[in-house]
Structures are given as structure tokens and as C-alpha cells.
Sequence to fold (541 residues):
Amino acid sequence: MRASAELVDRVFRRESGRATASLIRVLGDFDLAEDAVQEAFLVAMQVWPERGLPDNAGAWITTTARNKAIDRLRRERRGTEKLEELSALEPPPPEPDDLELEEAAVIPDDRLRLIFTCCHPALAPEARVALTLRSLGGLSTPEIARAFLVSETTMAQRLVRAKRKIKAANIPYEVPAGHELPDRLDSVLASLYLIFNEGYSATSDAALVRRELCGEAIRLAGTLARLMPDEPEALGLLALLLLQDSRREARVGAGGDLVLLEDQDRSLWDRREIETGLRVLDRGMRLGATGPYLLQAAIAGEHARASNPEDTDWRRIASLYELLLHASPSPVVELNRAVAVAMAEGPQRGLELLDEGELADELAGYQWFWSARADLLRRAGRYVEAAGDYRRAVELAKNPAERRFLEGRLEEVG
Amino acid sequence: MKYALTIYGDESGREGASDEEMQAVSAAYAALTREMQEKGVLVAGEGLYPTPTATTVRVRDGDRTVTDGPFAETKEQLGGFYVLDCRDLDEAIDWAAKIPGAQSGSVEIRPVMVFDEAGNLVEEATA
Fold:
């Protein structure tokens, strides 16, 4: 089967992460590993279009990159102590294409080492994201620069500095053990979520690579979940990303206007993504421990299960927010809980929660607090007060689409 | 690989400390230092008297200036240090987290420079 350049690019990118991860382990050097994989890519671009894709692309890339690394070390007469281990580097077994989660991985996967290293807290947050996308995601430096709206030079420097820090401070290429794992995993999950949100917030006229960040984040989260199938939060993040992504087509209306969840055309929701997301969610919930990502996924799952807004189980959502408040307290979570309670028990109860404590002070600058409060006041028939809060929301709106939406609401209450 | 762990804290916060509180802190540091010795990671470690006892020296164009006090006014001031020989950064981080000063202040971890036999600075220090 002849392969187009685009297909070669896509397959190589998807499969090269494992080669990169293993070579970094053996060579002890990000740049050497990336160079070797890059050389393998050039060969693939020459050979795959003619001969067709190899049956096991991952194995092909690992073998080819490994051989390129061996050639280079011999040529430069350095690192000879690594030659033996390099020669012994076995290509990995083929990986299933879909998101089926196998039993816990018996053989430690180098990609797990790679992602924990890339997301080490000793690296700056933007560096973690860049390094993950470059080493594991296989994106090129110009692509990552375009995706995050910075110049190529800036992104290149960011990557150089990150790799230098890893070497200079001797950040170990390991999966963290025991007591360190929860914090270190948080850093990985936060980085992947950041990548997803960057893509989710991209407008329709943004660069393709930027919009594709969602897919990239899901792919990386899928890899993580496959490699840590008994880790509830890894499953939680994957489920959350899938369920959020399923609504992508419905959240923006004609002219780039925001469409709230309750107003979205649910026929535009991606049913297949929802099914996969719910399956992953279910598996995560069965593991017993419920952390913040799993809880957020469960909330998204309740929305996804409702074919119409009226079918939403708001009581269940309210109790999930209750649990989320314990796991990960924050003013925004309190706001969302109040809204859910209002949906389940009526606007008065919701307003009571919103007016509790210092919530209004903490969220004074947050347009969605005022718009939510205004909405509850409107439903309670208190139109004058509602208008006042919508006006505050409009003032705080951050972009034209938001402002248009909030002004529309203000008009409705007269 | 050697790391310097420099310990910073807000001295003004300690001004009202009682004798018992001071002794408790000293005891905690003594216990930690013992543990570092036993685990074979301790290279050096000292507590420093507070910044009112400090003197700063600068030499510019052969002219020597000596001033009273620390090198700069900072929110947190250097109060002590350890030099530890650790396997990697994660081990150094674990030790830093045990330092009493990390509870209320900050501990900065920096790799110590390594030189090869010819006296050249090794760009990337590895274990």
C-alpha cells in the first residue's frame, strides 16, 4: 500500500514516542535520542511512500533510530560504553490502536519515564508542556511554537533550557516511586490538561496545530492511562478530556458565539467519544478512590448521559460537586456546586449558597459568578437585581464573544 | 553528585521566639544532620548567625568596600546551608523537604560545579 507523505508523517509521529523514550534511557541524552529518531524519520519519508507502511511501525522506528545512533556514536568515537546496550535494545511489541485498557503493564514502559521526566516540577510549567509535546508527542518545534502562539526562537530556547536543566541538575529518568508519585502524577495530569485547554480555547480561525492540541492531549492521556491502568486519576483525566471534547462542535454557534451547555444542540455531540469516555469513567470509578479529575469526569458524564437538558440528574451532579469540594476546594467549585443545587432544589437555595461566606469577595472579578447569580435572581423573579448582576458580568467580560453573550442575557431581563 | 542546599527564612518572623522554640529548632537540625551523616550524604552543613552579624565585601578596580549587613535587603535571608552528595535531584529534593527551615521559608537546591582532571568546568554534571 503506497503511503502519502501526510500519512507517513502522522503514523511516524504517533509511533515515534516509544523509540524516543527508550533511546533517551539508553543514551542518557534527549538531543542524541531526538537526532536519531529524526534521522529515522528522513529514512521513513524516503522509503515508506514506495514500500508502504511497515506492519509494526513502532518497531521499525526503534530499530532504525537505534542503528542511526550506533552509527553516530561509532563515527564520533564516543559513548562506546553505550554501544552494547544500544545493540541489545529490543523494538517494543505492537500497541493496540484504540483505547482498550489492558491489564497492568508488566514491562516498564520507557514512555512513562519520559512523561514523568518531562513534567518534573523542577521544570517551568511551560517547559513541561513543550518538552512533552516535543519528545512524546513528536511535534516539531515550529509546530509547538504555532500552537502556543510564541515565536519559534522562543520555543526553541525554552526546549534547550529545559533539557539543560535536566542534565545540569541531574533530574533522574525514572518513574517516581511511592511517596513521590501522587505529587508527580499531579504535575503530569496538569500539564496534559493545560495542553487540552489550550486547544479547547482556540478559535475556529486559529492554526490547525493549535486546534489539534485537544486530540494530542487525548492521545497522550490515553497513553498514560494505558500505562497506569490502576491509577484512578489517570483514567479520570482521560475520561474528562474525552467527555469535554465530545461537545466541541456544539459549544460555538454561528459567528463564533458561545453556546452554554444547556442550549447546545446535543445531536452535535460526538457519541463515540462519549461512549469511550463513559467506559473509561466507569473503570476509574470502580477503582474506589475518587480524586478531582475523576469527579470532574463524573460530572461531565452526567451531562453526557442526558439526551436533553431536562433529563440531567442535577441531584447527582450536586452531590458530585460536594465530593469535589472536599477533594479540591476552590471558589469556582463552590460556584458550580451552587448552580447545580439551584437546578436540583430551586434558585433560592442556590442564592443562599452563593451569598455564603466570602464567595462574592473571592469571585468579585469573575464574570461567570455574576452571570450565574444573575441567572438565579432572574429565575426567582428578581429582575432588577438580576439586571444589576448581568451588568457587572458584562463589565468583566474578557472577549467580544463573551460580552455579546452576557449583553444578550442582560437584554432578556430588561 | 553534590548539591548545595541553601536555607532562606524571614528573620523578622523569628524575633519573638522563646528559648524553648529556639532549642526545639536546634534539636531538629541536629537530628537531621545526624541522619544525613548516617545515610552517608552529608558533605558539609552549618547554621549561620542572623544578618545583623553580616559584613559584605566588594572590590571594584582594586578598591575595597566593606559594609555592614547582608549583600542585599531581601524578604528572606540566608540562614544556613548543607552540601549533600545525592544520587539525583529527586533525592536532594527529599532531603530539602526535611529541613526545618523549609516549613516556613525556602530551600534552594543548586548543583555544585564539577571540574575534570584538566581543570575544565564540566558542562553537564552527572552522577
User: Anything to note?
Assistant: The CA atoms of residues 16 and 22 of chain B lie 10 Å apart. The interface with chain A takes residues 1, 87-90, 93-94, 109, 111, 123-127 of chain B (CB under 8 Å). The two ends of chain B are 5 Å apart (CA to CA).
